């Protein structure tokens, strides 16, 4: 479904806008709240194909970038351990495999929960990419939660089978090839977006105001400040796409975000399936009514 925006109201477009047929890429490297990978092909289908540099300033698990396979890109995030993982993927993939294999061996040689808690305690004492890489794959529900008071990771150990080092190594090789055109940096999104120039394209997947305050740095995030950065980008000829809360509920309240008038030209509704966070909160209960539909807003 494609619509155009007038302020916060939506009107049907009079002319069809062509989209690109993009093959899905569903092999995950990292687990992350809000990961768009299963439906990233629907997002990439609406991104410009004639970009200079692709920017993704809320990189997270990187599913959209890996689906796009950009020829030149800057992937960034404010979460240093996460960026360390991406930088190691690019520069030393064998080291990334080694990080995971070492912790996997400890995990299976001892008491799963005790080893997991030891790794988590070490990570919380000195946040680092090597420990975080294993924790995000072994934690309960794949939902990485951070305590608001001190940013400590709080998710307990999961009961699911943890991917083998051999399988993980194959994923590392696949992802390194798909991310070959990218460089990675630990940056605030405003600093990253300020680098974009006319002809570039930015995809933003910010923390969702109603449901994702468990993410690192999300407590201080202000959507109004992102809108200001997007306005500045649009003024200098940078095309911006942004995912935002759609028909997903927070409790009994549907997320209704006020969009600045004239900032976005079109809106696409993307069916995202069921919410990972909601599944975590509901403890595995049936979720037929908890489908998520994201709004993909486009400045072009």
UniProtKB/TrEMBL annotation:
Domain of life: Bacteria
Keyword annotations: Methyltransferase, S-adenosyl-L-methionine, Transferase
InterPro entries associated with the record: Ade_MeTrfase_dom_2, DNA_methylase_N6_adenine_CS, M_m6A_EcoRV, MeTrfase_D12, SAM-dependent_MTases_sf
EC nos: 2.1.1.72
Catalysed reaction equations from the record: a 2'-deoxyadenosine in DNA + S-adenosyl-L-methionine = an N(6)-methyl-2'-deoxyadenosine in DNA + S-adenosyl-L-homocysteine + H(+)
A GO term, aspect molecular function: site-specific DNA-methyltransferase (adenine-specific) activity
Family the UniProt entry places it in: Belongs to the N(4)/N(6)-methyltransferase family.
Protein name: Site-specific DNA-methyltransferase (adenine-specific)
Organism: Tritonibacter horizontis
Organism classification: Bacteria, Pseudomonadati, Pseudomonadota, Alphaproteobacteria, Rhodobacterales
Originating gene: dam
């Amino acid at each position: 479904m494609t619509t155009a925006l007038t302020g916060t109201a939506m009107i049907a477009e009079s002319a069809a806008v062509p989209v690109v047929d993009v093959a899905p890429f569903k092999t995950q490297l990292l687990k992350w709240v809000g990961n768009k990978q299963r439906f990233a092909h629907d997002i990439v289908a609406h991104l410009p194909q004639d970009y200079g540099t692709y920017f993704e300033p809320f990189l997270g698990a990187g599913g959209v970038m890996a689906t796009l396979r950009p020829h030149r890109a800057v992937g960034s995030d404010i979460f240093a351990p996460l960026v360390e993982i991406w930088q190691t993927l690019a520069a030393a993939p064998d080291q990334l495999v080694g990080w995971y294999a070492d912790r996997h061996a400890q995990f299976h040689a001892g008491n799963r929960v005790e080893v997991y808690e030891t790794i988590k305690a070490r990570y919380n004492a000195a946040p680092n990419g090597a420990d975080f890489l294993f924790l995000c794959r072994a934690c309960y529900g794949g939902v990485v939660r951070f305590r608001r008071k001190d940013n400590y990771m709080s998710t307990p150990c999961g009961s699911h089978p943890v991917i083998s080092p051999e399988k993980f190594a194959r994923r590392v090789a696949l992802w390194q090839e798909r991310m070959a055109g990218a460089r990675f940096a630990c940056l605030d999104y405003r600093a990253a977006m300020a680098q974009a120039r006319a002809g570039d394209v930015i995809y933003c997947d910010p923390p969702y105001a109603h449901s994702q305050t468990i993410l690192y740095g999300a407590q201080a995030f202000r959507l109004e400040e992102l809108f200001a950065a997007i306005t500045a980008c649009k003024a200098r000829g940078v095309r911006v796409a942004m995912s935002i809360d759609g028909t997903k509920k927070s409790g009994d309240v549907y997320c209704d975000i006020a969009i600045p008038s004239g900032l976005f030209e079109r809106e696409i509704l993307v069916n995202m399936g069921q919410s990972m966070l909601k599944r975590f909160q509901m403890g595995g209960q049936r979720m037929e009514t908890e489908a998520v539909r994201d709004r993909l807003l486009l400045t072009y």
